[in-house]
Amino acid sequence: MHLALEADGEIHTVDPQPLSTRQVRLAQLESQAKSMIGTKLSPDAKQIISTVLLPVIKEDIESSIVKEFVTVQQQLTDLVDGLEAKTQQVVTSKVAADTTDNKLDTCRSNEKTALEQYETCEVDRAAKIVSDAQHCQTKRDAALRICAEKDAAADLSFSDLCAPTQCNLADGNMCNMEEFTKAVEGMHAMVKQKNDDYLVKSQECNDANKMASDVCSAAEKFAASDSCNEEREQAQQQQVQCESDYGQAKVAICSFGSALQDKCVDLSEVRSLISKIKASDRTDSLSESDRQHEWQAVQRLSCLLEALRDEGDLSQQAATTCAASRPYVQTFDYLDARIAQLTTNENFNCDETSVSFSGYWWSTGEESSEFERVASSHTVSLEEGSTPFQVCSDDVSSGQELLGSAVTLAANNKVGEVEASKHYEISFVLNLKSTPSGWHSVMRFTLGGNNGKEGDRMPALFVRSGDPKLYIRSSRQGSMNDGCDPQLPPLNQDTTVVIRVADGEMNVLYDGTNVCKSTKYASPTVVTQPLLVYVGDQWYPSAPATIAHLTYKPLP
Question: Would you say the C-alpha torsion 149, 150, 155, 156 has a positive or negative sign?
Fold first, then answer.
């Protein structure tokens, strides 16, 4: 809505909506001015115009128009300042998402390679077992043949050796003993040779049996051994690392998605406000064109009152000429250049339908042949409160999400409950503003108590002054207050924190880098009741920090 001095010389409202206080006051002044036209004003009336009516127009109505301009300009500036802060957060979180997704991409490639190496080892092992078994059988067969030859060499036949059964020495030939002696000597030489051959065959048989025994023993030992243990452990360790990297990438991607949604809400508010400022005939104080029309009407009225006071020209042309000499000097800055800079493709303009991080995504499985790297981008939803990316709703891999967008820590701030798991992984984005004096609570998973009973801290996180560490306490057999104490992450900066209790260890990671490890968690505490989750507990003051994307994931 606005006021205007029309061709009939009167001020009119352009629409029938209720007048503002300023517009009512302007209409009243216009009515007073009209009542004076055609009459000779007394000195007192002229004095009223000079000391009352014109000052009211100048100090009240004109001033309020200017103040209104300043207020709306500041309102837009504040919104754009907020948009700029959100844009910086989006850009920063995109860098983090790109970094973690590229790290995951590399990890998956290494995981596939490690799995291939393990599978190759198992194939080679199976082939070696078959080959060794065949070699063993060959050696056994050879030993049997050689030993059979030894046994054959042990048998001798003397059928050709015939001593005379009787003779007559009168024959004078010594009963042919010379021939018999030669035959015996030949037999003796043959037996000696046979014996030598037999001894050689016996040694060859013993050697062949030993060789067969050694070969078969080695084959059996290899078959019973775990010769691919190193490759299998490497593949398993790589898989664990990639699961951690996947969690980090997911948190970073979803954090970026939430930040982008927040920016788009701010951008929508900026665009909506600009649309209202550029519109006309509004019932609020936002329209710049309404203000300009009001200013023109005010100046026409001022000129009319001055002409009445000075007994000057009361014609419409005179009023128009006079008002034209008093233009509306305010120039509204729609901050187009800033907004354009904040909505470049690099800074995101909220027209995105998909977003690429590393540019690839992996399908995985139990075998390396199931690993496939495909070029991929993520379809994004920019609707406030929606799941920004499909990966963010993957409950099987992500666990139970307790928090989405950032929440400022507060005393006794319960955010949910989880079913307790002996082994678990907790991930969240922490932004610590300062290190406060004394012990302060960051987070607590508890059955309801502070300390001294199993289930009070599963885990509980603290910070304190004088020792820049993040104190993480999680109950285990033998200690209800054990844990890990990594150095604090950088202040005033988003850091993705992962706490994992599994495989006998507690590990703490900042942005995918392991910063603390305890090997005392072979027997973590087991409870059957749900754990209450607080970001800021009731026993300690809350740390000056925000937490976002808090997720609890049971592990095998």
Answer: positive
Angle between helices 63-153 and 177-224 in degrees, nearest 10: 160
Instruction: Indicate the pLDDT class of residue 3, thresholds 50, 70 and 90.
Output: very low
**Amino acid residing at 119:** E
First CA to last CA across the chain, in angstroms? Answer: 67
SS3 state at 448: coil
Please state whether the peptide bond connecting residue 486 to the residue before it is cis, i.e. omega within 30 degrees of 0: no
Of 434, 437, 419, 401, the C-alpha closest to 526 is 419
Average pLDDT over every residue of 362-374: 89
pLDDT in tens, 178-232: 777 777 777 788 788 888 888 888 898 999 899 999 999 999 999 898 899 999 8
What does each C-alpha distance from 439 to 144, 164, 206, 409, 480 come to in angstroms? 81, 121, 79, 14, 18
Q: pLDDT digit string (tens) for 102-132?
A: 999 999 999 999 999 999 999 999 999 999 9
Q: Which of 69-83, 177-191, 502-516 has the lowest mean pLDDT?
A: 177-191
Compute CA distances 319 → 9, 141, 313, 474, whole Å. 9, 128, 8, 82
**Nearest of 104, 99, 98, 96 to residue 494 by alpha carbon:** 96
Helices 288-310, 21-36: axis angle to 10 degrees equals 30
Parallel/antiparallel/unpaired status of strands 378-379 and 354-355: antiparallel
**Which is more confident, 375 or 161?**
375
The predicted model scores a pTM of: 0.60
Helix (H, G, I), strand (E, B) or coil at 284: coil
Phi, then psi, of 183 in degrees rounded to 5: -65, -40
Number of residues in the chain: 556
Residue 494: how many other CB atoms lie within 10 Å = 22
CA distances from 315 to 8, 321, 405 (A): 10, 10, 64
Mean pLDDT of 312-320: 81
Cα dihedral 63, 66, 70, 72 sign = positive
**Cβ distance 475 to 524 under 8 Å?**
yes
Q: Are 460 and 444 in contact (CB under 8 A)?
A: yes
pLDDT of 78 reads: 96
Q: Which of 494, 82, 76 is nearest to 264 (CA)?
A: 82
